[in-house]
Every structure is written in C-alpha cells, then in structure tokens.
Specification:
Blueprint (H helix, E strand, L loop, with lengths): L1 H16 L5 E6 L2 E6 L4 H13 L4 E6 L7 E4 L5 H10 L7
Antiparallel strand pairs: 1-2, 1-3, 3-4
Pfam families: DUF3634
InterPro entries: DUF3634 (IPR022090)
Protein name: DUF3634 family protein
Length: about 100
Amino acid sequence: MGYFLLISFAIFLAFMLIDRPLIVIAFKDGQLVRHKGKVPKGFLHDCQEIAKRNPFTGTVKVYSNRFKPAKLVMSRSIDSRTQQRIKNVFPHQSFK
C-alpha cells in the first residue's frame, strides 16, 4: 500500500512539473527554426515578419487553461519592444 501511494505521488509530481504548452515557436537569429502545435497561419506569418525586421533568438509559447484565456510566454532573450509587437498580433479569439 505504501509503495502504491509513493508511486502515485511521484507520477502526480511528474505531471505537474512537465512543461506542456499548446504552441511552441522557436526563432534563431530572425529565422524560424521550428514550430509545434496548431499555430494559426496569420500569427505565424506575422511573427516571421517581426523576426525579419528585428532579428531575435528565443521561443514563444502559448499555454491554455480551462479557467483562463490563452497565456503567451516568451523567453527573456527577446527584447521588450519585440515582445510587445508579438503580443499585439496574437489572435486571442482563436484560443477561447
């Protein structure tokens, strides 16, 4: 019985600590390296245009929850002006 509780607790912690975003978009020196998930085409195109104009290296992740709208998280290597431009083109209506 004790082993079962210990194993179930370890599995529960593993699920809580795993990073599971809906969308991941990675850029390196202004070029799209990879994307994962169902990315809206307009958002992907706009991000690529922003990266062409202001080359940056970093990742853009989108998280979703049943109780909250989509949350946009960007790596710290992306400067604040570029982050704001990406936030402005993010389609919030697509993630409700």
